């Protein structure tokens, strides 16, 4: 009997995603773990002698699908709240300080590094970092809205340094933090920016 | 032989894979506005669902292998499986592969072990303490206890009308490791698609009410190690955060589809009621 193997299909997807680098934006687990999962699942799927050709065809379909997966995902909505836990980077450090003592930071000069997203019709520009606990479905971009001093000609996804005055405002019932009168420049290294 | 036949849907599956490949790699800018929006939504759902299944996959394989190993090594595998389910430091995704090992123990014990293991496994407790603090950790434990005890009590009062997978232990042994893994992985797919759809169509914004937070947690269906971070980012009050994390494990699509498959629709509904009680207890304590 011809049987389609979902396990083999998934094994193909995992192997292709690990090979192309798509797994880095899809899951928090390292590519090595994804590849190991793909290999183990393919071995188990191929265990019975029956319908091995169909199992291999399913794995090939998975490889084709996995090869079409994207290597980067667009930033849609930035959350301006601290995600909790210990995370390295000046952006998370500032969000933690805001979480603990907002009055000590709001209205002051700040500088953070992160990934740049230009302004859109319904959304401010932003500087953010991705927080992924498990997979792309539960990943959120965390950071700050940015109101630059002048026009910025930096493409989305570039590592930047932003410095300016931090302000708080309520937008659609949600408390959001924005860096006003901001100076935005490409980061020389992806580590830390210094406040002016 | 008591082997369950695999459904043969090769052509349909290949067509689905090709369509999904097209969606995953589609460029919305080259289509008309209506088509572009539909392609963008389809692409997002495909990518999110794929990421959920890929992230859960290693845990499902680990759970399936552990269940197979336990079934070979231990005569009283069911009792040991219930203990392992409660204390194993695995994600709730592994329950999809491991649930079959619970066939040997009493149904109320199996239900309580699955509920507690999903809500209060060591990974989830450590993540909750690190992200949300010890007060929410206490609320999580209390909510998990209420939900697990509620499931055990409700299922023990329920007449014994177990579905085939639980009523015939011999049938379980006839299913090969490959078929076991197939069914566990296939179980993930509809829940992953449902959660991805909810992620795309649900209105974004902060959650203030525990009831709305619980509904969001149930629809988004995050892993137990990820739900504290999501709760902190999308829910403002501790009550809403507590309701979110308990519902994300007790009332979510993946857990409910797992319970329905192994224990039947009636027991799944009873588990929903117990899960809601767990949410209320956690929200009240937070």
Number of helices of chain B: 15
Give the structural class of chain B: mainly alpha
Helix content of chain B: over 70%
What would you report as the Rg of chain A, rounded to the nearest angstrom?
A: 22 Å
The proportion of strand residues of chain A reads: 25-35%
Brief digest:
Chain A is of the alpha/beta class and 196 residues long.
Task: Please write out the topology.
The complex is a heterodimer of chains A (196) and B (286).
Chain A (H helix, E strand, L loop, with lengths): L5 H15 L2 H4 L4 H15 L6 H16 L10 E2 L10 H11 L8 E9 L7 E7 L8 E9 L10 E13 L2 E13 L10
Parallel strand pairs in A: 1-4, 4-6
Antiparallel strand pairs in A: 2-3, 2-5, 3-4, 5-6
Helix pairs in contact in A: 1-3, 1-4
Chain B lengths: L9 H15 L8 H41 L3 H11 L7 H4 L8 H14 L1 H11 L1 H24 L6 H4 L1 H6 L2 H25 L8 H11 L6 H8 L3 H13 L2 H11 L1 H21 L1
Helix pairs in contact in B: 1-2, 2-3, 2-10, 3-5, 5-7, 6-7, 6-12, 7-13, 7-15, 10-14, 11-13, 12-13, 13-15, 14-15
Task: Kindly list the characteristics that best describe this protein.
heterodimer, A: 196 residues, alpha/beta, OB fold (Dihydrolipoamide Acetyltransferase, E2P), 2 domains, five-stranded mixed barrel, 31% helix, B: 286 residues, mainly alpha
How would you sum up this structure, described in words?
The complex is a heterodimer of chains A (196) and B (286). Chain A contains 5 helices and 6 strands. With 196 residues, chain A is α/β, with parallel strands linked by helices. In chain A, strands 2-3-4-6-5 form a 5-stranded mixed barrel. With 286 residues, chain B is mainly α. The termini of chain B are far apart.
């Amino acid at each position: 009997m011809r049987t389609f193997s979902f396990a083999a299909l998934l094994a193909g997807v995992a192997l292709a995603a690990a090979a192309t680098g798509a797994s880095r934006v899809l899951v928090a687990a390292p590519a090595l773990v994804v590849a190991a999962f793909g290999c183990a699942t393919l071995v188990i799927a191929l265990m019975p002698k029956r319908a091995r050709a169909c199992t291999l065809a399913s794995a090939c379909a998975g490889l084709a699908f996995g090869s079409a997966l994207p290597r980067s995902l667009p930033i849609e909505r930035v959350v301006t709240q601290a995600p909790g836990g210990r995370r390295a980077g000046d952006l998370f450090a500032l969000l933690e300080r805001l979480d603990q003592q907002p009055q000590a930071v709001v209205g002051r000069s700040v500088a953070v590094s992160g990934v740049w997203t230009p302004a859109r019709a319904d959304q401010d520009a932003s500087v953010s970092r991705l927080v992924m606990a498990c997979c792309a479905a539960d990943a959120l971009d965390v950071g700050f809205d940015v109101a630059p001093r002048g026009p910025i000609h930096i493409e989305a996804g570039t590592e930047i340094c932003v410095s300016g005055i931090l302000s708080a405002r309520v937008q659609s019932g949600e408390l959001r933090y924005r860096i006003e009168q901001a100076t935005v420049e490409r980061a020389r290294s992806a580590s830390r920016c210094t406040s002016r | 032989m008591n082997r369950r036949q695999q459904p043969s849907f090769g052509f349909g599956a290949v067509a689905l894979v090709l369509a999904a490949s097209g969606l995953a790699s589609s460029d919305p800018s080259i289509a008309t506005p209506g088509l572009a929006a539909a392609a963008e939504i389809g692409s997002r759902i495909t990518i999110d669902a794929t990421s959920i299944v890929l992230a859960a996959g290693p845990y499902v394989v680990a759970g399936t292998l552990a269940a197979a190993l336990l079934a070979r090594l231990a005569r009283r595998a069911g009792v040991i499986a219930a203990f392992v389910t409660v204390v194993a430091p695995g994600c709730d995704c592994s329950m999809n592969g491991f649930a079959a090992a619970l066939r040997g123990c009493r149904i109320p014990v199996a239900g309580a072990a699955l509920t507690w293991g999903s809500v209060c496994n060591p990974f989830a407790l450590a993540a909750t303490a690190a992200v949300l603090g010890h007060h929410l950790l206490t609320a999580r434990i209390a909510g998990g206890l209420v939900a697990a005890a509620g499931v055990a009590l409700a299922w023990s009062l329920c007449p014994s009308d177990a579905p085939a997978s639980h009523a015939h232990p011999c049938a379980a042994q006839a299913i090969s490791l490959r078929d076991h893994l197939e069914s566990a992985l296939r179980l993930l797919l509809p829940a992953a698609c449902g959660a991805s759809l909810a992620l795309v169509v649900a209105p974004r914004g902060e959650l203030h009410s525990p009831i709305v937070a619980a509904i969001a947690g149930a629809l988004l269906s995050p892993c137990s190690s990820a739900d504290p971070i999501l709760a902190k980012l999308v829910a403002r009050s501790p009550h809403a955060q507590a309701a979110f994390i308990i519902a994300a494990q007790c009332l979510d699509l993946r857990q409910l589809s797992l319970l329905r498959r192994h224990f039947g629709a009636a027991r799944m509904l009873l588990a929903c009621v117990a899960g809601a009680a767990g949410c209320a207890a956690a929200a009240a304590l937070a």
